[in-house]
Amino acid sequence: MEHHELPIPQHFNPDKVGDVWRVSYQERATEAEKWAQAHNIAPSAEDTHKISLLLVDVQNTFCIPDFELYVAGRSGTAAVDDNRRLCEFMYRNLDVITEISPTLDTHTAFQIFHPLFLVDSAGNHPEPFTTVTEENVKNGTWKFNTKLSQSIGLDPKKAKRYLKHYTRELKADKKYDYTIWPYHAMLGGIGHALVSSIEEAVFFHSVARCRPTDFHVKGDNLITENYSVLSPEVTRDDKDKPIAQKDVGFINRLLDFDAVMIAGQAKSHCLLWTLHDLLDEINQTDEELAKKVYILDDCTSSIPPIAGHAPDR
Q1: Between the chain's N and C termini, which has fewer beta carbons within 10 Å?
Q2: 3-class secondary-structure state, position 294
Q3: What is the Cα–Cα distance from 278 to 255, expressed in whole angstroms?
Q4: Mean pLDDT of 169-197
């Protein structure tokens, strides 16, 4: 059956997608109910063909110019342009998108990939985008910051063993190199929030379709990176004890849908590895399920090339 796209609601302002502002929830909620009635939009529970829209890290920290890890792409305005198209896509297809699942990259200062976690022999922290190798850990170029030991409950000797293990595991699994990132997506901070225009569209969808937004927090483990929302980079410590695990429940939830559409940032990192983990699970169960997974290619961009990371494409 052919789907006829909906008009875009008047409240959407494409010129504000690159800005941070407060969503007028009460106004949008009232409008969303009237919008659903005017366009005969049924609650999502009545959908016979169920579609999931997975939004990977569409947060200020990655999507707003001058924020910490803004995905500028080749054009310099990539993430803003992606999100303008993404908002329009959500509004035009609101009546057939069953559920929206935004992921939220969520960090604190003391995590393994932030500068504070490591020091050199002079007590200096690594600069953002520094690559840390197993050899760097062995020869003491970079060491665990023992000032953090009591606060996070990590013994210095154990920390050194773990750092060597961590770098080896990343290399063995052909993951990205151990990279120090700028402080970003800080829990409670403005960078952690969804882009305002995206938040507004997601909220509008939730009310119009009578469907709670399915938020997923990721990346808050202190001792492993978590590019993918479905699985952390390292799941076991140097003693083979579990430190994190694959989110099997969310994987199964996604695969219960008739179609899964994926958008967000960055295509070279968090979106890429989320897709990788989803397809890896599919390949272990039923390869036919891959036919239900779609990437909204004009709603995602890569970061510029960084040593040890996938190139812009």
Answers
A1: N
A2: strand
A3: 9
A4: 93
